[in-house]
């Protein structure tokens, strides 16, 4: 870099005082007002024009223009209201475009407060912009208004910039006081200087200096502008309803985001007091994110119920929210912004994601943020907590992001230092999950890859209690207000359904080997589950997810062990004693074994108000949303009549309506077809022309080793991407998208997101009856992506399934993948130009021929 090449300020006397500017200098002026700043810019710009410099004016402020229209100056107008990431990225790209040795004038940075309301983010912007300008040998002028920003913001700017100058106007005279001039020094450099045209007088005499500074407001410590806004808002609680409403709107735009359907619902239900209460539990600044908003709104809707039906059943929550600005601060202060900008381009979107993810997992947090994290931990003591993603786009209408980002349990045991380390690592893990492959694919396929995806975080106390060494709630699950997955005409679709587990709710949203959540239709909670199964024990939940206090981690234990330590309520509320196994154990001489149970929730569903309360809660939230909802919950019991429900998450449930009626012919038994079934499908009434069938043979697949099962998944991913513009019907054994190959084909959702319909096949005769995907995160993806879903129970009396119908067609596998000889018996791909998939919801009929 040509550090010795001097650049003039346009004031020759001042050039002598500071030994001129240098290429690479960022020059920050602390000013009283914009007029002062304009007065110092003019000579600099005039001299630069005279020297034939390339000059750029970056305009973003609300204040009047600093430079009038001039053919020698290019103006970029950048909209700060689009948010920090969009603004910083746009400026990064214009600096990149304009290249080396360009001169820049920026509007007053303090004006960014009107768009961002956060000193923290102004400091972050300067930290990402300044080094890049330095790298390109530019000279850039910035200003900040004196006595507006926090010490930490000023300190960050001082540390980053090359030149920091105080500009004073006292009694009509202009003084410049250099505070930092990098790599230059003279005996008088850091005195104040009186500027009179091109002449400069150094104020070295103590009497003159003290007289000058007596007339100057010294730098005062200030709260972050964010805190000032919320502190002033508290005073409005004593003002009129109209004034409160205006201030509430302002605060909601800071915490919740731009106008949207969710914003309107929050505006309808939240008072100014509610918003201030939320703000009081925020760490840092910025939005609290979609997951936090959804949870808070659902709880508020229920608490405002006119009949007061729910108050006595609702568990109080005391969550904290890590503001979305902390996510950017973490990236900026660890020096990864340039990498982030590269990753946000189409070319670098996937290329740089892995590197950025690895860095995010190892970064450090600023000291002031660490202190706030410590205070959150001290509040919770040693209660287990969960650190959950709450991105700006999450849990919104149209984009649920179900399961795309991580949530991390902190069992919260050990010394304060160990517990703090757990919390930090959990936050890093959630931040890093923004670079997960599924999340990247999801954003790309919904046209969101360029949209700001700031990650806020929700920290919740885990619901439950200690039972011996383990901590867990009695029950947890997922509830849907609309049950479009009906399997006979007597099921009321509008009554909703829940997917219930004993212990932590992880088993309700994630799939587990050989374990089954209880699927309950809320119109008739005690009716039998979806599958026609004789063996109730085999197809129930056998493992319980718990937080182990001694091991300090999330783990699983056997049901009998977990339930044997439940002391605060009758166990038969959840499970019935397995008398057959108990008798056998006694016969074999096992005396000290835990009593064996079958988890059937029989008494819970038959003799408590729980199913009705859940049904009414889901219906009420759905009524207000005017849309079906998907809720995660826990529940803890003191008796069958005394229980508390904790709504931990709520989002719009992406569903398809009935659509136009479809006339499905009734086939004679002798007429061939591929699939015919009653019920067990979701996706509305459809008449879908099928271009290709991709079929995975159950027997061949089950005979493969685990490694080869993963290979099948990867091959299918390659094929579906090549056929993404065609209507593909994907048919195979067990659960598509499982993480356990023994339960089905372990494809990632990103590998099958282009298919039009999928079918999961189970066979009791072959001993292969994995639980349906309904209610899981994977299933949410299927519904959101408008993929038709069907489950097929081969061997049932209402099912016709004839693989030969398509197996007689040529297998085209070799056309789409290389080295497929070993897989041609397992994967069959055929072109089906005349095939149609038909479904009709009212009579629950499906036909594919």
Automatic annotation (TrEMBL):
KW Iron-sulfur (keyword) present: no
UniProt keyword list: Kinase, Pyruvate, Transferase
Coiled-coil stretches noted in the UniProt entry, renumbered to this chain: none
Superkingdom of the source species: Bacteria
SUPFAM superfamilies: Glutathione synthetase ATP-binding domain-like
Domain called Pyruvate phosphate dikinase AMP/ATP-binding: residue spans: 288-660
InterPro entries named in the record: ATP_grasp_subdomain_1 (IPR013815), PPDK_AMP/ATP-bd (IPR002192)
MF (Gene Ontology): ATP binding; kinase activity
Entry-linked Pfam families: PPDK_N
Protein name: Pyruvate phosphate dikinase, PEP/pyruvate binding domain
């Amino acid at each position: 870099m040509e550090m010795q090449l001097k650049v003039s300020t346009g004031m020759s006397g001042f050039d002598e005082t500071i030994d001129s500017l240098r290429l690479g200098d960022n020059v920050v002026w602390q000013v009283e007002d914009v007029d002062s700043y304009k007065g110092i810019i003019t000579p600099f710009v005039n001299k630069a024009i005279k020297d034939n410099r390339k000059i750029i004016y970056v305009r973003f402020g609300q204040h009047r223009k600093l430079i009038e229209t001039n053919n020698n100056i290019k103006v970029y107008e950048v909209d700060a209201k689009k948010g920090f990431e969009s603004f910083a990225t746009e400026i990064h790209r214009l600096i990149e475009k304009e290249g080396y040795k360009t001169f820049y004038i920026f509007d007053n940075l303090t004006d960014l407060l009107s768009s961002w309301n956060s000193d923290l983010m102004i400091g972050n912007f300067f930290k990402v912009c300044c080094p890049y300008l330095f790298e390109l040998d530019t000279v850039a002028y910035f200003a900040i208004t004196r006595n507006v920003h926090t010490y930490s913001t000023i300190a960050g700017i001082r540390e980053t910039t090359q030149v920091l100058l105080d500009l004073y106007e006292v009694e009509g005279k202009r003084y410049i006081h250099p505070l930092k001039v990098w790599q230059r020094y003279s005996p008088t450099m850091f005195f104040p200087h009186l500027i009179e045209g091109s002449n400069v007088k150094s104020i070295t005499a103590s009497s003159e200096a003290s007289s000058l500074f007596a007339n100057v407001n010294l730098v005062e410590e200030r709260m972050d502008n964010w805190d000032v806004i919320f502190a002033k808002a508290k005073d409005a609680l004593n003002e009129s309803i109209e004034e409160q409403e205006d201030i509430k709107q302002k605060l909601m735009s800071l915490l919740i985001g731009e106008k949207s359907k969710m914003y309107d619902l929050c505006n309808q239900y939240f008072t100014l007091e509610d918003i201030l209460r939320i703000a009081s539990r925020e760490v840092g600044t910025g939005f609290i994110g979609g997951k936090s908003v959804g949870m808070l709104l659902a709880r508020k809707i229920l608490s405002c119920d006119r009949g007061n039906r729910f108050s006595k059943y609702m568990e109080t929550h005391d969550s904290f929210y890590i503001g979305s600005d902390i996510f950017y601060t973490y990236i900026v202060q660890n020096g990864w912004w340039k990498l982030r900008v590269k990753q946000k381009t189409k070319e670098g979107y996937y290329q740089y994601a892995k590197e950025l993810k690895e860095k995010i997992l190892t970064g450090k947090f600023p000291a002031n943020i660490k202190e706030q994290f410590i205070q959150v931990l001290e509040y919770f003591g040693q209660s287990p907590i969960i650190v959950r993603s709450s991105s700006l786009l999450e849990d919104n209408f149209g984009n649920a992001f179900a399961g795309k980002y991580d949530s991390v349990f902190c069992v919260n045991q050990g010394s304060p230092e160990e517990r703090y380390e757990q919390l930090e690592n959990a936050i890093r893990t959630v931040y890093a999950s923004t670079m997960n492959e599924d999340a990247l694919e999801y954003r790309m396929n919904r046209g969101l890859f360029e949209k700001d995806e700031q990650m806020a975080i929700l920290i919740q106390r885990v619901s439950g209690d200690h039972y011996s060494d383990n901590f867990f709630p009695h029950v947890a699950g997922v509830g849907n207000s609309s049950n479009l997955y009906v399997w006979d005409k007597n099921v009321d679709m509008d009554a909703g359904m829940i997917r219930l587990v004993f212990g932590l709710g992880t088993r309700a949203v994630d799939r587990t080997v050989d374990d089954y959540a209880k699927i309950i239709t809320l119109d008739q909670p005690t009716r039998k589950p979806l599958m026609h199964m004789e063996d109730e024990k085999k197809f129930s939940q056998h493992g319980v997810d718990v937080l182990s206090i001694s091991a300090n981690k999330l783990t699983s234990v056997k049901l009998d062990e977990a339930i044997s330590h439940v002391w605060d309520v009758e166990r038969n509320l959840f499970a019935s004693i397995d008398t057959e196994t108990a008798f056998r154990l006694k016969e074999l001489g096992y005396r000290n074994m835990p009593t064996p149970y079958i988890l059937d929730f029989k008494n819970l569903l038959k003799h408590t108000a729980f199913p009705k309360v859940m049904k009414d809660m889901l219906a009420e939230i759905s009524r207000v949303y005017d849309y079906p909802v998907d809720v995660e919950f826990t529940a803890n019991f003191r008796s069958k009549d005394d229980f508390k429900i904790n709504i931990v998450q709520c989002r719009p449930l992406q569903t398809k309506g009935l659509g136009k009626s479809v006339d499905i012919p009734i086939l004679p038994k002798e007429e061939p077809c591929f699939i015919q079934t009653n019920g067990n499908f979701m996706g509305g009434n459809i008449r879908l022309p099928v271009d290709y069938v991709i079929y995975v043979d159950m027997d061949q697949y089950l005979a493969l080793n685990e490694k080869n099962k993963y290979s099948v998944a990867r091959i299918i991913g390659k094929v579906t991407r090549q056929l993404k513009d065609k209507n593909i019907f994907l048919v195979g054994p067990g659960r598509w998208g499982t993480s356990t190959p023994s339960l089905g084909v372990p494809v990632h959702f990103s590998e099958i997101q282009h298919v039009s319909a999928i079918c999961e096949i189970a066979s009791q005769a072959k001993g292969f009856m994995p639980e349906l995907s309904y209610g899981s995160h994977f299933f949410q993806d299927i519904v959101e992506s408008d993929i038709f879903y069907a489950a097929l129970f081969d061997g049932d009396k209402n099912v016709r399934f004839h693989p030969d119908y398509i197996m007689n067609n040529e297998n085209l596998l070799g056309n789409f993948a290389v080295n497929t000889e070993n897989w041609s018996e397992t994967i069959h791909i055929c072109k089906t130009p005349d095939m149609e998939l038909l479904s009709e919801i009212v009579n629950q009929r499906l036909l594919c021929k």
